[in-house]
Amino acid sequence: MSPNKAGGAIGAAVTLANVSKTYATREGLPVQALDAINLEMTPGSFVACVGPSGCGKSTMLSLLAGLIPSSEGEIRIDGEVVCKAHPKVGVVFQSDLLLYWRTVLGNVLLPLEIKKQRTEASHDQVLELLKQVGLEGFADKYPSELSGGMRQRVALSRALIQEPGLLLMDEPFAALDALTREKLIVDLEAMWLRLGNTVLFITHGIDEAVFLADRVVVMSPRPGKIVLDLKIEISRPRKWGSAHEDPLFLGYVRQIRKIFEAQGVL
Amino acid sequence: MARLFENSAATLLILTVLLVWQIAVIVSGISEFVLPSPLQIAIRLVEERWLLLSHAGVTAFEVLSGFLTSAVIGIPLALAIFYSPIFERAIYPVLVGMQTIPKIVLAPILVLYLGYGWAPKIVLAFLISFFPIVISTVVGLQSLDKGLVNLVRSMGATEAQIFFKIRLPAALPNIFGGFKVAISLAVIGAVIGEYIAADKGLGYLQLQANSQFDTTLNFAAVVVISSVGIGLYSILNWLESKVSFRRERAT
Question: N vs C: which end of chain A shows fewer Cβ within 10 Å?
Fold first, then answer.
């Protein structure tokens, strides 16, 4: 698959205009998860969203994935209003959610089967994609035969095979050990530089947010509001190894930490 | 390799038990109608093969009919319980409660209504194998990770796709678990039915043998009843290996 050899062509434009979400709890009391979110993502940009637990980050992701409706406001992807699952969206969750009865190949083919887009060429497309994410030769393995990091790479491939204009990632590396996580962070940047999808990356990790993103959006505790929209101006490709000595990188990290400290999150 | 060793160890154990039994019978000089030796039983099995086989056919038919009826009614009912909140609230607790009733006590009543033919045996086999199928199917359907549903919804999956692509495959290990419990219970149901009132079947043959103090034939019937159970269980096992990916392999 080579959706983007030309550079940045597949990234979708994403707009959240005044989006709020209020849930009803089991007792019937309303709980506001998101409060008037305004966010514009330019095509091909990498936006990271950090915030404390329960601040509505995942709610925002569910709204963008079309899994739940918003209470107020409007979400658009390439100009189209999102009210159900949007074909241009691919999602990677914290848990890899691989089907244990399918091989790696079968798992990555799943979205194409569901979207009825599976063709003769799909098989080769998957193999090519697996090669790109570092899983060459693993197509016929079952998820149980893979490590946590490899499983998450399969989950990423399953999202990417859909050639998503918008790639949503919900704490995708949170369940991995530190070393595997670092490797995946670095590989994700390289992958994204090659493909050019618009990415919304939700995380607790301030360092991975600053390292990966063009913009870091910081959210307040519930009801989630955007309290800082920080442009990260570090040249790409970035270097994970030396990032933690880079004064610019550390400055961004400190700036975000300060907000969390002020809010009593840290 | 480990599996092979395990199996040969089990075979060795069984052979040892049979050998000790054989020797004990010979050494003690106990009479055949009190305790026949394994060899005597084996000889009887061969001698009476046609008699045993014809009764086994009857019992197997009753077991299979009862079991299949359970599956045909049980699985749609489990789907209804899973997909309809009304069914779940109204029927599921009743079913779980009825699971505690020993179905065998219904056997005399069934004979009263359905007579001496195969009908009460099939109904008993059905009643006894029905609950495990329904309950394990419901549990299997409920076992699906909510995250998986969200994942395929985000791909735009329809309810039918969710069912066939993920919910059913994820439920299959539970469904087959229920089937295996059910088929063993169905054998019990059919044989009990034959004990109550019958003119054929392996349970009937056992009573006949008893009344003639033919302990060896009685034991031979036990061997054949077990074989019917094991055979049906093996068929399910084989079927499962064809359609379902076992969870054990996923751990």
Answer: C
**E strand or H helix that includes residue A187:** helix A178-195
**Bridge partners for A40 per DSSP:** A15
Give the best residue of A58, A80, A99 to mutate against chain B (max B CB count within 10 A): A99
B151 vs A: CB within 8 A: yes
ipTM of the complex: 0.88
According to the model, what pLDDT value does residue B96 have?
82
Q: What is the pLDDT of residues A181-195, one digit of tens each?
A: 999 999 999 999 999
Give residue B27's pLDDT band: very low, low, confident or very high (50, 70, 90): very high
State whether B14 and B92 are in the same domain.
Answer: no
Count of beta carbons in the 10 Å neighbourhood of residue B109: 11
Nearest C-alpha neighbor of B34 from the set B188, B215, B163: B215
CATH number at residue A250: 3.40.50.300
**Domain boundaries, position A106:** 98-163
Query: Do A128 and A217 lie in a common domain?
Result: no
Segment B167-194, tens digit of pLDDT: 999 999 999 999 999 999 999 999 999 9
Give chain A's domain count: 2
Strand residues in chain A grouped as ranges (E): 14-24, 30-41, 46-50, 72-77, 80-81, 89-92, 166-170, 198-203, 215-219, 226-231
Burial class (CB in 10 A: 0-12, 13-18, 19+), A51: buried
Domain annotation covers residue A206:
yes
Q: Chain B partners of A93 at a C-beta cutoff of 8 Å?
A: 147, 150-151
Same domain for A117 and A58: no
Q: Are residues B23 and B90 in the same domain?
A: no
A179 and A82 co-located in one domain: yes
For B156, which residue in chain A has the nearest alpha carbon? A85
The C-alpha atoms of residue A258 and residue A206 are separated, in whole angstroms, by 11
Q: Per-residue DSSP letters for A87-155?
A: TTEEEE-SS----TTS-HHHHHHHHHHHTT---TTHHHHHHHHHHHTT-TT-TT--GGGS-HHHHHHHH
DSSP state of A79: T
Start-to-end CA span in chain A (Å): 43
In a domain, A93, yes or no: no
State whether B10 and B128 are in the same domain.
no
Residues of B in contact with A61 (CB under 8 A): none
Are A36 and A74 in the same domain?
A: yes
Using only the alpha carbons of chain A, give its radius of gyration. Answer: 18
Task: For residue range A193-225, list pLDDT tens digits in order.
Answer: 999 999 999 998 999 999 999 999 999 888 888
Work out how many domains chain B is built from and give that number.
2
> Is some CB atom of chain A closer than 8 A to the CB atom of B243?
no
DSSP H helical ranges for B84-143: 85-90, 92-98, 107-114, 119-142
Instruction: Measure B210 CA to nearest chain A CA, in Å.
Output: 50
